[in-house]
Amino acid sequence: TMPGLLDLVHLTTWAVCAVIKLPQLAAVLRARSASGLSVGSLLLELAGFLVFLRYQVYYDYPLETYLEYPIIMAQDVILLYCILHFSGQRKRALFFAVIYWGAWYMLTLQKWVIDLAMNLCTFISAASKLVQLQHLWQTKDSGQASALTWGMSAYTCASKLLTTWCEVLILIRFIIMLILNIWVTATILHYRKTKKTD
Length: 198
Description:
Elements: H1 2-19, H2 22-31, H3 39-58, H4 68-86, H5 92-106, H6 111-139, H7 147-163, H8 168-197
InterPro entries: MannP-dilichol_defect-1, PQ-loop_rpt
Membrane topology: Multi-pass membrane protein
Transmembrane segments: 12-29, 36-57, 69-86, 93-113, 170-191
């Protein structure tokens, strides 16, 4: 039964990743506003995904271990563009695109660069969640932040814990991300509740 369960977890994770940012995107487009969302958080998240994806590609990991990353990154890029668009900072999109494009190539110029980046990857991704949390605490308003998107992120981290037993470093990463995703989800729901009672 264990292989069957793992297959199911894999499939549901891919399904969730395929639509993970759509509730967030829908909320931003519906409100034509990105209040409650931190651009810094999204940029850090993208950086973390970029490093993780580059590492897996560089070391020839099997495709199924990182297939969801390009899908999530594409959604993140669209979301980032919408946030910049609604906050009147569209011109910065090209600047960010050039930086990430350059980083993709720079990461594998030397083996030690990609190894170091991978070691820092968990810190980068954790920082992205903490920046979003800080933004929520400062504004005390979840705005268009989607609890469903963050909840789905927590689910994908939990599922990765079941399917990733290979590397301690990667395992630690998913435990930290799981805790932080749940924290952000809870914070969004908390501020949504307080807003309704005001």
